[in-house]
């Protein structure tokens, strides 16, 4: 098929800003180790980096930012590290929510809030409150993947569709990609244009397996706590130079 100059779905023209950016924030532990500090020190620095990146993504006019905060597999880490991360999470929502709300940011949690282990009721409440309070905001769509797994999300969507079919709301023939996407945590969000992974690892780690089908990947050796506004600009610049073909030629 001929490539048409005005078909924005097919290419990212020079200077284009991605609508939806997803980030695997990796390298907090190594950042701390290099400084002879405990891993939790790296996570604290990671929250500071996140704050700056959210602000800059908003300023750059990015429509949706999806960050990988805690996977379903991360519960395997030491009780100390999990406890510290859950503490940071609670602190983050307690301290930042007012400002995020003022900035018109809409928060969506991607993942199984109900399935979080016992003892994290305050975190569960904070996450639900953040979503409820910001649900009508029209600015940056900030999506935080938490107790999230890409495979689990796909299986959950399949189950939900089966339930709808069993209830007679949907015929099996009506199960198409649009119906499927509607059952994902990301329903209603634009497709992911750019995936950024810090700390140089070349894997997906069970993140947004469905949604990344046509995303451009950008991997940097920068460890997450060192990732800042300039680093985000560099990733966006690299994206803008890519030619996206979506399977065409
Ligand atoms: C990966 O680094 C990072 C994480 C598993 C946690 C990411 C979380 C934050 C940046 C802060 C918490 C989030 C919120 C929303 C408050 P790693 O520990 O795997 O680093 P390593 O690969 O160097 O060991």
Strand content: 5-15%
Quaternary? single chain
* Tally of individual helices: 7
* CATH topology term: Undecaprenyl pyrophosphate synthetase
Ions and ligands: farnesyl diphosphate
- The CATH superfamily is identified as Decaprenyl diphosphate synthase-like
Order of helices and strands: EHHEHEHEHHEEH
Residue runs with pLDDT of under 50 for 5 or more positions: 1-10
Characterization of this structure:
- By secondary structure, the protein is an alpha/beta fold.
- It is built from 7 helices and 6 strands, in the order βααβαβαβααββα.
- It has helices at 28-34, 39-59, 79-102, 121-134, 150-166, 177-181, 229-241; strands spanning 20-24, 64-71, 106-110, 141-148, 194-197, 216-219.
- α1 (28-34) packs across α2.
- The radius of gyration is 19 Å and the shape is globular.
- The protein starts with 19 loop residues before the first strand and ends in an 8-residue tail after the last helix.
- The model is unreliable at 1-10 (pLDDT under 50).
- The structure holds farnesyl diphosphate.
- Farnesyl diphosphate is lined by residues 25-30, 43, 46-47, 50, 69, 74, 85, 88-89, 92, 144, 199, 224.
